[in-house]
Amino acid sequence: MSKIEVPRRTRSASTSPSAWALSPGRSLPYSSPAPVAPVPKSPASYEKLMKQEAKSGGGGVGGVLKYFLQKKVSPLLEEEYRRFRVVYNRLLQWRFANARAEASMAAVKRVAQKKLFNGWARVCVMRNLMMEKRVLIQKLRHQLKLYHIMNSEMRLLNEWSRLEPKNVEAVGRVVRKLSAISVCLPLVHNAEGDVMSVYDAVSMAMRVMEGIEAMILDMHWQVERTCFLLTELSVMLKQQKQFFQELESSVSVVASLEVQEKSLIVHHIQLVQEVNG
């Protein structure tokens, strides 16, 4: 295969273009535009293109070097490729930075979700504790109300424990009397009784029982009133005892003040006599 001879460029100020002239968007003013090779879209395509060109001149690395020695790449192509590599490197850097940012944001998100869940769990625990405290407070309030109600009724219950034997005895007497009266009725040997007289007797017994009930209610009201008066009287007696104790302390103070007054009067009289004498 014949070698391709490339004419060497002579360095001259008029023919050699400067870096400003070779910048993108600039064309040579006095030279015809040279054919530009197609710009590769990626480094892989560029390497593929270089391999294809190297195969035409010889295989391997030696062929590539021989190719570069024999034929120079266009400066515009080199500039474009350099810019492409810079942009591609920036793209890779941005992708890496975005991946790191996404990973850090995911970690921060996980930490925030964990903290949010822990806060929600603590709030739930606090709500449960508050509900338990409220239930306990409500229970204590009900117990206090029950205690106040039972405390006001305990006195009556204690009094009823003393009155219960008498009440049971009175009810037993009534039951025995009614039993005796019912046993005395002639209900044997085909005995018959007057319906009206029996009705009158039963009605009278009912009226007597109603009267007894009304009397018991009246006595109960009177007993409650009497107990209330006795309670007030006991409270008044306690207050009077306190007042008497305060009065005794005041009397002792007054007696001591009277003794001091007498001693001061005597001392004053002595001073007056000493001044006059």
UniProtKB/TrEMBL annotation:
Any Pfam family: QWRF
Transmembrane segments: none
UniProt-listed InterPro entries: QWRF (IPR007573)
Recorded superkingdom: Eukaryota
Region (Disordered): 1-42
GO biological process terms, semicolon-separated: spindle assembly
One GO CC annotation: nuclear microtubule
Family as reported in the entry's similarity comment: Belongs to the QWRF family.
GO molecular function: microtubule binding
Name this polypeptide is given: QWRF motif-containing protein 7
PANTHER family for the chain: AUGMIN FAMILY MEMBER, QWRF MOTIF-CONTAINING PROTEIN 7
